Amino acid sequence: MIERESIEKKTGKCTHEVVYGVTSCTPEKANAEKILKTNRGHWRIENSCHYVIDWNYHEDRCRIRAGHGPANITRLRRFAVGLIKSKGAHCVAQKMRELIQNTRLVFDYLKMTKNSCAVGCS
User: Fold this and answer.
1) CA 35, 39, 44: angle at the middle one, nearest 5?
2) Where are the domains of the chain?
3) Number of alpha carbons in the 13 Å side-chain half-sphere of residue 48
4) What is the pLDDT of residues 26-48, one digit of tens each?
5) Reduced to 3 states, what is the DSSP secondary structure of residue 96?
6) Which of the four pLDDT bands, split at 50, 70 and 90, describes residue 117?
7) Which residues of 65-90 are buried (b: 16+ CB within 10 A; e: fewer)?
8) How far apart are CA 74 and CA 27, in angstroms?
9) Which residues pair with 6 in a beta bridge?
């Protein structure tokens, strides 16, 4: 059993939720501390990756359905988010907005032009 309390930022409304989980692990392998750690690990991934991709690319509303298209577009989106994060951006959405507004910035950001490379680039 996990109890959650959250406050909606816009309205200030407080909600209380109780959720139950089921596992086939033994009590020794699935004590409360381990279950909580697993649950938090899941939401850390959800909030750091899935949420960012869905919010910025509207992935849940994507109409790509045929063949390998959905998997390939997801890989490209994850690659883009990973690249932005690897360059130290604090806010992926803000960096994406900056890059969308100026195509030249994308090439400079990726160091794909001669004048954006450090001395010694070929």
Assistant:
1) 145
2) 2-116
3) 10
4) 888 888 888 888 888 877 766 77
5) helix
6) low
7) eeeeeeeeeeeebbebbeebeeeebe
8) 37
9) 15
Spatial separation of the C-alpha atoms in residues 60 and 23, rounded to whole Å: 28
pLDDT at 22: 86
What is the DSSP secondary structure assignment for residue 46, as one 8-state letter? I
In this predicted model, which residue has the larger pLDDT, 113 or 55?
Answer: 55
Q: How many CA atoms lie within 13 A of 116 on its CB side?
A: 10
Question: Taking the chain, what is the end-to-end CA distance rounded to the nearest angstrom?
Answer: 58
pLDDT band at 119 (very low <50, low <70, confident <90, very high): very low
Crossing angle of helices 69-86 and 92-101, in 10° steps, is 100
The model carries a pTM of 0.55
Residue 122 has pLDDT above 50, yes or no: no
CA-to-CA distance for 106 and 112, rounded, in angstroms? 9
Give the H or E element holding residue 3.
Answer: strand 2-7
> Mapping DSSP to helix (H, G, I), strand (E, B) and coil, where does residue 115 land?
helix
